[in-house]
Amino acid sequence: MKLHFFLIVVLISACKLIAQTNFHPPLLIPLNLAANFGELRPNHFHMGVDFKTNGREGLPLYSIDKGYVARVKISPNGYGKVIYINHPNNITSVYAHCSGFVGILDSLVKQKQQEAENFEVEFYLDEGELPINKGEHVAFSGNTGSSTGPHLHFELRNTTTEAALNPLKFGFDIKDTKVPQISALKVVALTKKGYQIPNKSLIFPLKKNGKGSIVKATTIEIPSNFCSLDGGQALSFEVNDFIDGSTNACGIYESHLSSLGDTLFQQRMDSIYFDHSRFVNSHKDYDEYLISKRKFNKAYKVAQNPLTIYPINQIGILTLQPGDSIQLNYTANDVKNNASSLDFTLKAKKGERNNLIDFYSPSTHFIPDSSYIFQGENYIISIPAFTFYEPLKKYVVLAYPNLILGNQKDPIQLPITLKLKPIYSKVTIEKQFIKINNSYTKTTINKENWLEAETKTLGKINIGIDTIPPTVNALNFNSTDTLLTKKTLTWKVNEGQTELIDYDLLIDSIWYVLEYEKKGSYLIVTLPMLSNEPHTLEIVAVDACQNKTSWTWKGWLTKPPIKEESPTKLD
Ligand SMILES: [Zn+2]
User: Fold this and answer.
1) Class of domain 365-465
2) Which of the four pLDDT bands, split at 50, 70 and 90, describes residue 56?
3) Cα(295) to centroid(ligand 1), Å
């Protein structure tokens, strides 16, 4: 009997062990998180986890399972150098911001860059082309793309739908004993359509009651004019999660709002589609984020929010009338079930309710479900329906070429199309571009010979002009030297008006990969093996308005051979 029991214990432990180590860790150092899945970021959710890499680049990255390299992308933006590996069970793993790749993959990337004569490449591979073993060293960690410090941004995706999955649900060995912190509660009054009623919101700070995970709040009272005939009230919670070994505020995994056991709203960060990610602006209380960067998770949603993070079909909107009260519980927990809980009574004071019907008039506000076109002799602005999350005060100035469309701070979901007639008669249209809030916006020239751009930023719109080419200057060597013995050469490239769109390095007229480190504006080459003779280096840099700079250098890249002196004649 005793032996039996022992065996069962061993078996259970073994099963647990297999579940815990199902995937090979992507790093061999202890896995420490700098950020978790679903964190609320500007205009997106964090679609993976960030593993710390001890503040360093160049740590080996390992494939979490057997599979094949399905996609590789090299870009100065976004994920920088990134590799996608498809595994059995319809899972894809993603390793972003890499500094480089290993073996055949590294050679393949270089070959593709050489073929395209471009540092920026993206290619897809079929099963069988580049198979990978579980635990195979595939890349090196880095800080490329829009990363602001060395780390591994790691994702898991559903291979078919490409939806991002929560990697922490897949048994990686990450220590987490800390509970989420619920630090404030916000109550807002809503219209029938679920829009926030102007000036009807209140924030209640919450205090921990000393037990750590339980927050005390007895009765929270809201004014009677937070009630209306066909509108309601809704809650959002300032809540952050914390992980052992890190002080970073992370996102919560799960939350429940319930009343006497009935769930009113639930959030669970298991999976997010990339084309839903921008709806983070609808999920978080945007105003609070804007004012103070405080992250309030709404415990309610509006109809057009398609996020798949709400497991039950509830919208979380309360319908208190003056004098009503409701007993509520809000619980937030992480993947390891560390939870914090808040019990309280929400009470609407007795008195007059809000009897207005139209809080937002179509003449004064942009209404989310309407589309808009502003058209004049020199401009067309097209705004599709569902661009706005909430009704937004119509702030439009149409004094071409200086247009104003809303405030830069207000988020929008869909791109707005701008078409502007070029203005400067003395410069060609190719040298003109659309500027939004004084920044270059990617501009094309359309059939009508107008400037055209799409924007997901509101604000000031006008036309910029760029006739100044980028500048290129040697950084880690002196361009007047005729002998360079460095293996890696670096240049600083500056482009003031628009942005760098092409950069090429020619060594003796042959193209070599020149890396573009956009954050620091560096161009970097690791020199190939070159023959022992003088060489010519040329860099050509082109900006978005086709202004071109050429930088050239001639000299030795290895020490010239020492000439033997002719033997002195003796007589
Ligand atoms: Zn990340």
Assistant:
1) mainly beta
2) very high
3) 18
